[in-house]
Amino acid sequence: MKSSVRLAVLLVCLVSVFLPISHCSVPNDFKLVEETCKKTYHYDLCRFALSRVPESAHADVKGLALIMADVVLGRARNTTENKIQVLRKSNPGDKRFDDCLLHYTAIEFDIARFDEHFRNHDYTSAEVTMEDAFSQAGNCELLFDRPKSSPLHEYNILVTHLAELAGSIVLM
User: Angle at the Cα of 116 (from 36 to 156), degrees rounded to 5?
Assistant: First the structure.
């Protein structure tokens, strides 16, 4: 029951953030976004995330990967500032939140490494750094006793999916 409630909360969050896009037809400028996202495991999330960034309309596939990396960075920072810090303050002494903060700080470092590899046209290494970002959010999740018991579950899943998208797009 709790997992279905959490999934519902995640869906409500995603819909509330991305709803304006889902009711619009896709302009011709976003055709590459559509084509690229269709090749990923998370088509809807990919389409919604990239369509919210105006630069996506004029980017090539590699540019879309860089934009998606920025989306990952933004989501990781948002999670750190708006959720992890609040949980740390309301649960003093719970080391799991301190450890999650370290994992999310590592995600920010991974994005910087992604950018460096990307600018050097080392797309395989860029993809590997996204795998590490994916793992960092997963490691935060694993700090909690039962699957899906983390108060950060929805955030961790979203960051892992976004990182997975960035990693897959950079190799296209």
Answer: 60
Backbone φ and ψ of 128, nearest 5°? -65, -40
52/71 Cα distance (integer angstroms): 10
Q: Count Cβ neighbours within 10 Å for each residue of 125-135 and write b for 16 or more, e otherwise.
A: ebbbbbebbbb
Model pTM score? 0.82
One DSSP character per residue, 83-148 reads IIHHHHHHSTT-HHHHHHHHHHHHHHHHHHHHHHHHHTT-HHHHHHHHHHHHHHHHHHHHTSSSTT
Burial classification of residue 115, based on how many CB atoms lie within 10 Å of its CB (0-12 exposed, 13-18 middle, 19 or more buried)? middle
Residue 87 CA to residue 10 CA, distance in Å, equals: 18
CB 172 within 8 A of CB 61: yes
> Residues 38-78: pLDDT tens digits?
999 999 999 999 999 999 999 999 999 999 999 999 999 99
CA distance 110 to 136: 9
Separation between Cα atoms, residue 162 and residue 96, nearest integer Å: 23
Q: Which two tokens stand for residue 59?
A: 């980017």
